[in-house]
Amino acid sequence: MPLVRMTMFCKDSTLRRNKNLFILIFIGFVVYLVYMIASHHRHGFISTDRSLIDGHEIYYFREKMVNNLTFFSHIMSREDFLHPDSKAAMEVYLRKQSQRFMFDSKDLVTDIGFNIEDDVIVYLHIQKTSGTTFNHHLVEDLELEKPCDCPHDVITNPCYCFTHKNTIWLFSWFTTGWPCGLHADWTELHECIDGALDQLEKRHRQRRYFYITILRDPIDRYLSEWRHLYDGEHWRDSLLRCEGQRPSLFDLRPCFREKSWEGVSFNEFMECQDNLATNRMTRMIADLTKSNCYHKRGIKEKDRRIIMLESAKENLRNMVFFGLTDDYSHSKALFENAFGLKFKKELNVTKLVPEEKFFLNEIQFKEMLQYIELDVQLYLYAKDLFMQRSKQLH
């Protein structure tokens, strides 16, 4: 009898050890799985398919789009573009083809006889286009009779950039702050600037306004904005006024309700229905009053996008200067020709986050294209206008 009890005790002990071992192995597996998911979540990957999780650097897709027509056709096998010309534009953009647009001669003439004492340069600063760098060049590197007086920290303390007549010649973040709203777009600036400058100069006067901006490759800019929010930065304090009104929560729902969107995965970033990163350059340059502002009722989204893109193109043509992030040399020459102002040195772009550091899988790359469809068309249009204006200088 004691022998039977001993045998049963040994069996029970073995079973308990095996059970405990199984529990430990299971817990270890769960911890490992959670860690792997969290790790991929931080980098924008939440797929369980290894071939998709691994992803590729952006230049992989850029090169394959050019060299592999089958792969390009596969990526472009989508029907969710809302603008009728997006597919054709994507082929030009992704396969690095050339596209020429017809411009009137007046669109190519940029020497407007700028008078620094009476006229105003209005800098429309689009996020993640190296716009801060260009702003630094404007306040620090121009040859001026009365240079800007800039404090050590121009980001929080605007420069004193008044002329001999005590007028403001440059309306930008570094010279006036954000009187029309954080990163005010064309619509906000157009509605606000007269009153803002009257208040800053403490008088009313007639002014000529010359809007300028910097544009960047749409893929690079979109990814850079995601990374910016991933790092915990944001522009949630933007007013986004249109016809004097801010958008309602029905028309524009915030992507996050916490203090920031830190750690947001790329999939989550794209899935936000009202993400302001979507076609940001087009939206910020367009006159939004022509496309029903941010109101969702009263206009079809397809019609909104068509109108918005045409408005952005029109406003871009009317700018005597806009620059390109990837061509600061010609940007410098065009600015100097337009305003008769010279830079003391060559312009340099700050070290941007290299595009090769962004890893996406095929599904993510394909998905991203629908969120930059208007910006791709605007960028192609801008590049050709930019090059035709550059040729006019010679």
TrEMBL record:
InterPro entries: Heparan_SO4-6-sulfoTrfase, P-loop_NTPase, Sulfotransferase
Gene source species: Sinanodonta woodiana (Chinese pond mussel)
Known function: 6-O-sulfation enzyme which catalyzes the transfer of sulfate from 3'-phosphoadenosine 5'-phosphosulfate (PAPS) to position 6 of the N-sulfoglucosamine residue (GlcNS) of heparan sulfate.
Signal sequence extent: none
GO cellular component entries: membrane
Name listed for the protein in its UniProt record: Heparan-sulfate 6-O-sulfotransferase
Membrane topology: Single-pass membrane protein; Single-pass type II membrane protein
Compartments (UniProt record): Membrane
SUPFAM superfamilies xrefs: P-loop containing nucleoside triphosphate hydrolases
Pfam family, one: Sulfotransfer_2
Domain of life: Eukaryota
